Amino acid sequence: MAACKTAASWRSESLPRIRIGVNLFAAQFRNGSVLEDVERALSESGLPPEALELEITENIALAEKREHCPL
């Protein structure tokens, strides 16, 4: 949430086209609230969705693949 607030502040002051990347962690996926957390952060900060990049680590992607496509 802090990253969204900071980026929104930068965009309103002097850097209107700035985008910010936020790393997501496995624990955020396990609790099942990633979508709600992101929506709340965008809503409360006023940051437009296109200004936020969510970065998913390889570990998360591989763990998700293992759950849905076991070898």
Write the layout of secondary structure elements.
Layout (H helix, E strand, L loop, with lengths): L1 H12 L6 E5 L1 H5 L3 H12 L6 E5 L1 H11 L3
Parallel strand pairs: 1-2
Measured between the Cα atoms of the first and last residue, the distance is 37 Å
Envelope shape: elongated
- Element-level helix/strand string: HEHHEH
Q: Main sheet: which strands, in order across?
A: 1-2
Strand content: 5-15%
Give the biggest beta sheet: 2 strands, parallel
Low-confidence stretches: none
**Percent of residues in helices:** 55-70%
Number of helices: 4
Structural class: alpha+beta
Number of strands: 2
Give the mean pLDDT. Answer: 84
Query: Compute the gyration radius: what is it?
Result: 14 Å
Descriptive labels:
single chain, 71 residues, alpha+beta, two-stranded parallel ribbon, elongated
Give an overview of the whole structure.
This protein is an alpha+beta fold and 71 residues long. It is built from four helices and two strands. Helix 1 (2-13) packs parallel to helix 3 (34-45). The longest helix has 12 residues, at 2-13. It is elongated. The model has no long low-confidence stretch (mean pLDDT 84).
